[in-house]
Amino acid sequence: MNRWPGILIAACLALGPSAPAISAEICGLEATGADGGMMVQAGNFSAVCIPGGKCSINLSMVDNVGFALERAAVAGPWLGLLTSTFSIDSGAGVDLVFDDEDETRIAPDFLIAAEDMKSVRVDDDVSDIVISTMLSSKTMTATVQLVGGKKVIHNIALGDLGRATEWVDCAQGK
Fold first, then answer.
1. Contact by Cβ (8 Å): 44, 160
2. Residue 105, SS3 per DSSP
3. Which of 85, 92, 138, 156 is placed for a possible disulfide with 64 were both Cys, Cβ 3.0 to 4.6 Å?
4. CA–centroid distance for 37 within its chain
């Protein structure tokens, strides 16, 4: 069993937030301490794992609207998550275009909004479909509408997503 993740995390916690970042190779990528866990950069994406907890991959941030993937456990499903400092209009759905092909709409029925509407997650079954499509695609354009009508467009190159999900699989499995 590889003890590097535990050693890295213990060192980060002991030295506190003012200490310089400690890094070590974890699952083939250079990881640094982050928020009580570890973080890596896999191409365009940053991935963060908390020991014994969830991992996330940040896909894009445009105009204070973030698009990420989250997973609570290595055997658990990946979930699509939108966050914003503004209220997201989940009733407008989310439009996705993969590899410049036809548009795919995630209907409002498959979006679960937080009470403050500043985060919206995609239903589990739809997340599975979206994420498997993302992993087999080169690009994705996601259009999210905020309350008030403003549309935020994320243009995401997906080439390194497989590498980021593989790192999470490995790191979460330790």
1. yes
2. strand
3. 85
4. 15
Residues 6+ apart with CB under 8 A from 58: 45, 46, 47, 48, 66, 68
Among 83, 70, 79, 60, which residue's Cα sits nearest to residue 158? 60
16-38 pLDDT, tens digit per residue, is 443 445 788 989 999 998 777 89
CB 55 within 8 A of CB 66: no
Residue found under tokens 């994705």 = 140
pLDDT tens profile 121-163: 999 989 999 999 999 999 999 999 999 999 999 999 999 999 9
Instruction: State pTM to two decimals.
Output: 0.83
Q: Can you give the length of the chain in residues? A: 174
Hey, what are 67's tokens?
Answer: 């698009």
Residue 121 tokens read as: 């997650």
